[in-house]
Amino acid sequence: MARKTPQWEGRIVRVLVCTERKSFVTKELPEARVSFEGLEGDRHAGLTRAADVRTPWFPKGTPIRNTRQFSLVSSEELAQVAETLGIPRVLASWLGANLEVAGVPRLTHLPPGTRLFFPEDTTLVVEGENEPCIGPGRVIEAHHPDVQKLASRFVKAAWQRRGLVAWVERPGIIRAGDTVKVVLPRPVTYVLPSSGV
Amino acid sequence: MARKTPQWEGRIVRVLVCTERKSFVTKELPEARVSFEGLEGDRHAGLTRAADVRTPWFPKGTPIRNTRQFSLVSSEELAQVAETLGIPRVLASWLGANLEVAGVPRLTHLPPGTRLFFPEDTTLVVEGENEPCIGPGRVIEAHHPDVQKLASRFVKAAWQRRGLVAWVERPGIIRAGDTVKVVLPRPVTYVLPSSGV
């Protein structure tokens, strides 16, 4: 059944991919093919992945379904992070992002289950917030050796502004300049009953 | 990072599978193997499925990721549906369920992203509520030809009591009698900003 849920549009500023294994830093492409495995050629593509520190309820290395195929960041949130860190800019590529999106308010807060529809068939579903870790902080620091403690300050500065991870619901193509339609899931409230069922 | 989220335990009353294509009615098994495709041999197993009336935002038949691998129902909610319909019982198999769970309050209300951990590795993630349609109503009616309009009354009686659909995060085995640990996702609130970002 179709449901009325809030929706609006953003714009894809950059499509980025990481084809190396040594570094997570991404490189800009004009467009990219998307399969059920993720962004073609990207190091995070795959139907499954190994459990890690983000899924501590599984033994490390356990094969689990890969719901972290894509990393998305917001132009506006990156600008906020740069301002907080006192540097001119933080690039999406430094964070290993695959998509930089402009015009979606509070991108990092989009709830799990949010759908992102692209003009050429690709549909992504939001898994959740991508919690910041120190890795991208070190990349930022390497670009600004003159600024104090950037690596460790990054985690706090990027809290709830580091973007999202998402998985592919429908394959297609994504191009820089694409409009992306954002559709929130229906809200669900679960309250424990006071007694019985 | 591990998070403190509410959790409790339920019990698997029945494991059920549908190996036919003509009917969605399921049959009880003592145990079943679970792969990334779903319940082995079940008609809903598969990494992808064809878009249908439940995903009207895609052209019908489009291959999309299958997040409806498992159907779960609650013993307590089934009893409520039976009572509303005025019949002695509604069986999980009549609804095509794969798992009947007891002891989880308001099962159908569990939010998307809820994780279900089984003792022998299987982990399922809740996709969302399984909205009732008339199909199971017809099966119930066939078992009670003496009771009026059961098929059409089912949809209303089963609203928010028809259980959930879920997908496999980690493969394993599920057995009747298993304890299932239920872990709610961290709540996320998304509020549109009043102006700008």
What does it look like?
Chains A, B: Residues 26-183 form the MOSC domain. Chains A, B: It comes from Myxococcus xanthus (strain DK1622). Chains A, B: GO terms for molecular function: catalytic activity; molybdenum ion binding; pyridoxal phosphate binding. Chains A, B: InterPro entries: MoCF_Sase_C, MOSC_domain, Pyrv_Knase-like_insert_dom_sf. The structure is a homodimer of 197-residue chains. Chain A is α+β, with helices and mostly antiparallel strands and 197 residues long. Helices cover 15% and strands 31% of the residues of chain A. Chain A has helices spanning 75-85, 134-143, 150-157, and strands spanning 7-17, 27-29, 31-35, 38-39, 48-50, 63-65, 70-74, 99-102, 115-117, 123-129, 164-170, 172-175, 179-183. Chain A has a 7-stranded mixed β-barrel. A 3-stranded antiparallel beta sheet of chain A has the order 4-3-12, with no helix packed on it. Chain A starts with 6 loop residues before the first strand and ends in a 14-residue tail after the last strand. At the A-B interface, strand 6, helix 1, strand 10 and strand 11 of A face strand 6, helix 1, strand 10 and strand 11 of B.
Q: Indicate the percent of residues in helices of chain A.
A: 10-25%
Instruction: Using the CA coordinates, give the radius of gyration of chain A.
Output: 17 Å
Most extensive interface between two protein chains, with residue counts: A-B, 50 and 50 residues
First-to-last CA distance of chain A: 27 Å
Domain MOSC (chains A, B): 26-183
Pfam families (chains A, B): MOSC
GO molecular function (chains A, B): catalytic activity; molybdenum ion binding; pyridoxal phosphate binding
InterPro entries (chains A, B): MoCF_Sase_C, MOSC_domain, Pyrv_Knase-like_insert_dom_sf
